[in-house]
Specification:
Layout (H helix, E strand, L loop, with lengths): L2 H24 L4 E5 L3 E13 L6 E5 L5 E7 L2 E8 L3 E5 L3 E6 L15 E7 L4 E8 L3 E5 L2 E9 L3 E5 L2 E10 L2 E17 L2 E9 L3 E4 L4 E5 L5 E4 L5 E4 L2 E2 L5 E4 L4 E5 L4 E4 L1
Pfam families: DUF4097
InterPro entries: Toastrack_DUF4097 (IPR025164)
Organism: Weissella paramesenteroides ATCC 33313
Amino acid sequence: MGLKATLITGGSVMVIGGAMIVTGLSTGAKTTITWDNGPKIVKVHKINQKFNNKNFKKITIDGGSNSYVRVVRGSQWRVSGKYLDSKLNLNTTNDELKLALRESNNPIFGIEESSQTVVVTVPYKVNLDNLNLTTDGSGITTQDISAKNLTVRNDYGGVRLNQLTAQKIDMQGDSGNYRLQNVTADTLHVNSGDGYFKAHNLTLKQASQMQGDNQQIELHTIHVPGINVANQDSSIYAGGADQADNDYHTGDQSKALTINGANNDVTIK
């Protein structure tokens, strides 16, 4: 096929796809577009499922890629939101709620996965035993949640923890974005390369560790027994000054938050 024919064919596909989008919008259809040997319309479904007389102690969420999941407080157990054809799996047992979202194999126009947003509501006063979060490019936010153990696997996604209380927090993955606001835990363990970690008003009671190379770490108004930052070709700003080539130590080292890794950019204010 010559260049002219290729351009004409490509242009025709764009026109067809654009026409399908316009048609869907003009008719009020809850649809989006994928590519499967040509443009394909898929339906956007809604979910609003309540769980009465349940006492879940464990929540497991796999956000997949390019979805957005929120875990919040409310009056009763509920899973609500919207998702694409066959892209949501929801399973429950007596004590566990499991949610998994999957992206389409062939999204186009960069709009499809924004159609997948789900809210998991946890009743007030419920304290979870385990909260497990996994993302491979998706965003997950928690608000006012309490759990004994929080486990996060974050590859290329974003995890935001707000008003969270836990005994143990364990985070790992590559190129993840973490933001913590008003989080209190006994221990925190992070193993993440090429990531971004920012915390405001973080309280840790026992020895904790952040491990990984090429990270940007910002800690603002943290409450910890001590801090131990090893300088391995890193930039460290702490104690109101640039630490140059020096390590940074303060407080009780037996219970300190230890930060290890090469080529990190660490700011502690």
